[in-house]
Amino acid sequence: MLTPYDILGPDGSIARRLERYELRQEQLDMAEAVYRAFIAKRHLAVEAGTGVGKSFAYLVPAILQTAGDQNNAGTILEQPKPNDLEPDEEDPFYGEKPPRSRDSNRFEGNYSDLNHSDLNRLDPNRELQQIAGRETSDESAFIPRVVISTHTISLQEQIIEKDIPFLRSVLPFEFTAVLVKGRGNYLCLRRLHTVQQKQGLLFDDRKLQELQRIVDWSRETEEGSRSSLNPEPDWSIWGEICCEAGNCLGKKCSYFASCFYAQARRRIANAQILVVNHALLFSDLSVRMQGGSILPVYHFLVFDEAHTMEQVAANHLGLSVTQGQIEYNLNRLYNPRTQRGLLTDQSLGEKIVKSLIAELQQAVDECFYASENFFQDLETWLQRHPGSNGRIRKSRIVNNSLSGSIRKLNEKLRELLEQLKNPNERQELRSARERMATLAGNIDVWVLQGLEEESVYWLEATHSGRGKPRISVNAVPIDIGPILREQLFAKIPSIVMTSATLSTGK
Q: What is the pTM of this model?
């Protein structure tokens, strides 16, 4: 059974590959500490400065833990369950729950008194199966999985494009690793086809040229990821054709067999190493708290650039609504200036009562008006409280007619949905209705200061240099520690946090 020393040591696999290999003792010490933390089911914090080689120091233990020869002997790659492959409105991988650790204490051990042969005597896979509540006789249905979470795209690219391919070339066994992207990064072929049918009713001439560029790319791309289109597409168009939570027909979709996102999910379900960013990781945590999930079950977690995790976690466990979000979603339904959008006679393509269409357009107008008043009142509040720094210390500082206007619009949308027969039209409008409901609910929570955890609420005014400032309402829990302890650290057997600069609260 291989250990980090066998790979990173002075006579290890990498040294045999590279003529001028120089041992980095700090890297080797960190790798063995991470490996031991995985085996012992402990959490670990490692401050490692520039030049230590942190990525290899956690990737090597991660690969050994999930795909090393100690696992290959008795573990067959878990096949995804059928419902793991079906995109749906909640974007979960159903049927799996993170195992709860019996010992979630932070690692405080010292490995200086252990020699490398001690590592060979441990059987982490057997222990992990016991934690997950599986008998050793069920090894063929079990796959340990490591999530590597970073803050920056550049580090993700380094791991996926450089570090992992190199380690594949020096290790004597196979392992699977994928970069996990959010649903919105993938093209939806069904939505693209729908937009093509009504493109003149949605876009002006400039955007039509951009749409054609995307259509041409869609015929050639293998993965359908936005980042593979250079230059990346205009978001005002991409937002109409990308995969969306709540806007997917799953296996009922005529494009399901060639769905880029479904293919990506299959790769994720079969992967042992998942590379994600902090935003996706905490989005998954937020969804898990509501009973679903974005990522499949995983057993080990590495936070690189861990000094940023607290802020990212707070943002995803709180809420934020901007004036631009409200206007963007309303304009998608109906833009009074251009008279384009989903809520037009021509766009719907069905014989819908014209009076209902007119009522819906009027309801959108009323939402625009309510939004303008709501955010103007917030701007006025900021002007009258210049020393507040935007901090809101009491509820109901302004009247909220916006949420009520959105709910009236949604009631009209419900009437329209009852009349629509085209499944594509229904799905698009149902998704738009759900987004508006979420925005209305978040505004209610902010105005009433109704987050469950003790939170801080504030306003922000963004000045673009032209026109009026754009206002956003925000709230985050004051202390995310209890949430992370309960929802993450108590459920994942081993979590490693590393950065060049780490600090702890006293």
A: 0.82
